[in-house]
């Protein structure tokens, strides 16, 4: 398993697309805060009223979004990288050499998680660095509580990308080619986002129907692609933590099991 | 002789199409098993099932005595090297890098192994070269694929159409490599091909497959005996002649032109007297037959098909 993980990591780092991801990471990390700064300078208070994050903290945490911005680009490019093992037929070398299909899937998943989370961290910290040159971290002074909140939020955001890695690995195993894998990734994440967003818009209209309201809130809070659980901005309640951990565990388990079933049933070309 | 590979009623169905129909084949240690069949006959499907790349719809595969339904099949597969269809190589990496990747998968620690196999397959000049495998010719990719199959010092090497894309010199090299490894290291080979003439220069045993069915397994010696001679007969009534032969002869025979060709070593006098007792012969021609004719006689018709 460790040998295969080493091979998978080397394969990813050697891929030209990984270099492309790194370049896009740098460009996006530079452009996003700069564009926001430019818009803020031109629009002034109107930008704040539109809800645009005008502090480094918001930009830092917004960087971890699997359906928008760099998060989407990185995920899509990772779909291509992972699919190459199947399209080039190199996965055959592992199976013929006596590696179990479960080990092949697990190795690809771990490699994808390590590199995707790593690149998202680099992107987020680059964004934070550039943002701090242009904005304050937050309107209020930075305290120990803020540090704790940042660490917990960072862990939660990374958990989302662990789920995204499981989804990408599952799709790369199941789909016939990278194009289909990308389409399915975008379709699935968009579907979850749209459903979640629609539910959150309906919630204020059903205040008198408690069970329905609870159900809709549950569906929105447990949607890992929306990341709506943000605590009160400085701390998380136990319920928040439970929502995040349980929902991420369920999504991860779902994609993990689907991926294992897919690779075990698949005839490898 | 130890059985290295055995299939038991191996079947494969894609959708509603039966691609393999209860194939029973046996490869023994030291064999160079020539797997012969037309395009689409099921050669690659069997190889993919043996390598674990596809799941059988029925029957089973045994590798080194381990059944493919048992967990021990994974350790048995470690003794196998294979090139299935096109070589599985990373196109964005050099030959050495590709082999290093395979070393990692196999857990090969010997640093000289990469150089050793590159030289074995005639790609020694690529050692340390940065040229990417994507820029290699088809022949070079084929050799690199074989080098990767050799890395783990396998006891069984499976090569699916290894001569494809090779120039005449390359074909000779690969043929000599197979013979060398078989003789010197007692490596067993399963080599599929539709180029019979080429296969006949290396194979010690043949499996003839057509339309998903293994029609015959025959040793090279028996094949030489069977296809060495054939008897061509014509009669006034060829339908009657065909019927008479089918009652008299258990070997292979087939309609050809205006008559019937009988393959194999026939006791000429006895056979002809028996035939002439029941019908009149107008032409008798005793000739030698090539391996291709023999193959066609088996897959193309006759009562054994």
| Number of β-strand runs of chain B | 15
Largest contact between chains: A-B, 26 and 32 residues
Overall body shape of chain A: globular
Annotation field: number of helices of chain B: 11
Q: What is the straight-line distance between the termini of chain B?
A: 29 Å
Q: Give me the strand/helix succession of chain A.
A: HHHHHHHHHHH
Main pleated sheet of chain A: none
Strand content of chain B: 25-35%
Mean pLDDT of chain B: 86
Give the proportion of residues in helices of chain A: over 70%
How confident is the prediction overall: mean pLDDT of chain A? 87
Distance between the termini of chain A: 22 Å
- Biggest sheet of chain B, strands in spatial order? 7-8-9-4-10-11
Write a brief structural summary.
Chain A is mainly alpha-helical and 269 residues long. Chain A contains 11 helices and no strands. The mean pLDDT of chain A is 87.
Topology (elements, then pairings):
The complex is a heterodimer of chains A (269) and B (305).
Chain A: H1 2-14, H2 16-43, H3 45-49, H4 56-62, H5 69-87, H6 91-96, H7 101-134, H8 144-174, H9 178-202, H10 210-221, H11 238-265
Helix pairs in contact in A: 1-7, 2-5, 2-7, 4-7, 5-7, 5-8, 5-9, 7-8, 7-11, 8-9, 8-11, 9-10
Chain B: E1 3-14, E2 17-23, E3 26-28, E4 32-36, H1 43-50, E5 58-63, E6 66-67, H2 73-77, E7 80-83, H3 95-106, H4 113-120, H5 138-150, E8 156-160, H6 168-185, E9 188-193, H7 196-199, E10 205-210, E11 213-219, H8 220-228, E12 230-235, H9 238-248, E13 253-256, E14 259-263, H10 268-278, E15 281-287, H11 291-299
Parallel strand pairs in B: 4-9, 4-10, 7-8, 8-9
Antiparallel strand pairs in B: 1-2, 1-3, 1-5, 5-6, 10-11, 12-14, 12-15, 13-14
Helix pairs in contact in B: 4-5, 9-10
């Amino acid at each position: 398993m460790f040998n295969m993980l080493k091979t998978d990591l080397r394969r990813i780092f050697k891929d030209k697309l990984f270099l492309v991801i790194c370049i896009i990471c740098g460009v996006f990390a530079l452009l996003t805060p700069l564009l926001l700064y430019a818009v803020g300078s031109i629009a002034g208070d109107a930008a704040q009223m539109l809800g645009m994050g005008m502090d480094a903290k918001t930009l830092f945490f917004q960087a971890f979004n699997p359906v928008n911005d760099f998060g989407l680009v990185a995920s899509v490019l990772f779909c291509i990288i992972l699919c190459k093992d199947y399209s080039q037929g190199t996965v055959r070398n592992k199976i013929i050499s006596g590696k179990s299909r479960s080990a092949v899937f697990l190795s690809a998943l771990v490699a994808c998680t390590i590199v995707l989370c790593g690149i998202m961290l680099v992107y987020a910290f680059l964004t934070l660095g550039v943002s701090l040159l242009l904005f304050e971290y937050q309107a209020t002074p930075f305290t120990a509580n803020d540090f704790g909140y940042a660490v917990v939020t960072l862990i939660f955001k990374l958990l989302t990308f662990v789920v995204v890695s499981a989804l990408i690995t599952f799709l790369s195993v199941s789909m016939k080619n990278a194009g289909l894998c990308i389409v399915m990734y975008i379709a699935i994440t968009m579907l979850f986002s749209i459903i979640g967003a629609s539910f959150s818009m309906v919630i204020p209209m059903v205040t008198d129907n408690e069970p329905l309201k609870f159900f809709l809130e549950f569906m929105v809070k447990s949607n890992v692609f929306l990341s709506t659980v943000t605590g009160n901005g400085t701390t998380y309640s136990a319920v928040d933590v439970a929502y995040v951990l349980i929902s991420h565990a369920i999504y991860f388990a779902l994609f993990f099991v689907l991926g294992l079933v897919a690779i075990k049933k698949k005839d490898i070309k | 002789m130890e059985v290295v590979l055995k299939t038991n009623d191996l079947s494969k169905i894609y959708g509603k199409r039966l691609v393999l129909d209860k194939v029973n084949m046996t490869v023994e240690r030291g064999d160079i098993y020539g797997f012969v069949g037309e395009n689409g006959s099921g050669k690659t499907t069997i190889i993919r099932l043996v390598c674990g790349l596809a799941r059988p719809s029925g029957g089973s595969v045994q590798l080194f005595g381990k059944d493919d339904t048992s967990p021990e099949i994974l350790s048995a597969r470690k003794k196998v090297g294979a090139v299935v269809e096109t070589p599985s190589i990373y196109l964005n990496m050099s030959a050495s890098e590709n082999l290093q990747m395979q070393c990692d998968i196999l857990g090969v620690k010997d640093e000289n192994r990469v150089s050793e196999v590159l030289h074995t397959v005639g790609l020694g000049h690529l050692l340390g070269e940065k040229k990417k495998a994507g820029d290699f010719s088809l022949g070079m990719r084929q050799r690199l694929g074989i080098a990767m199959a050799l890395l783990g010092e396998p006891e069984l090497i499976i090569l699916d159409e290894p001569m494809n894309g090779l120039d005449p010199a390359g074909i000779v090299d690969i043929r000599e490599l197979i013979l060398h490894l078989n003789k010197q290291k007692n490596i067993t080979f399963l080599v599929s091909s539709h180029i019979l003439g080429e296969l006949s220069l290396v194979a010690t045993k043949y499996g003839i497959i057509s339309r998903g069915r293994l029609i015959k397994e025959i040793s090279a010696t028996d094949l030489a005996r069977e296809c060495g001679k054939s008897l061509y007969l014509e009669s006034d009534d060829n339908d009657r002649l065909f019927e008479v032969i089918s009652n008299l002869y258990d070997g292979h025979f087939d309609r050809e032109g205006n008559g019937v060709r009988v393959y194999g070593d026939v006791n000429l006098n006895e056979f002809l007297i028996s035939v002439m007792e029941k019908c009149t012969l107008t032409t008798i021609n005793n000739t030698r037959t090539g391996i291709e004719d023999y193959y066609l006689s088996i897959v193309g018709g006759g009562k054994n098909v």
